[in-house]
User: What shape does this take?
Amino acid sequence: QVQLAESGGGLVQPGGSLRLSCAAAGIILSIKTMGWYRQAPGKQRELVAEMTSAGDTRYEDSVKGRFTISRDNAKNTVYLQMNSLKPEDTAVYYCNLVLIRGINNYIFWGQGTQVTVSS
Assistant: This one.
């Protein structure tokens, strides 16, 4: 089984920064992607940023230039550095891990961490 442990959420003023961390533990097979999603009240969960095993990254348009995803392969940990935060970034942020074995993908989610941007 795989567990994802998230940390780093909290309350921050507009323009501030936060860094989220997600450590994967357990039987880690070949990683396809690690990333972050978010879900604001009344909205669908959306991709924020993800990184492939090759290091390619993808970002949601509204966070480009403000958020940076990175990964420590030795620790199976993914980070999300969030700068210039805006009130509309307020959401529960979920870590996402996709493992691949053969033709099968295995998807895991963290428990979520609240990020609130407010003055």
Remarks:
- The mean pLDDT is 95.
- The chain has no helices and eleven strands.
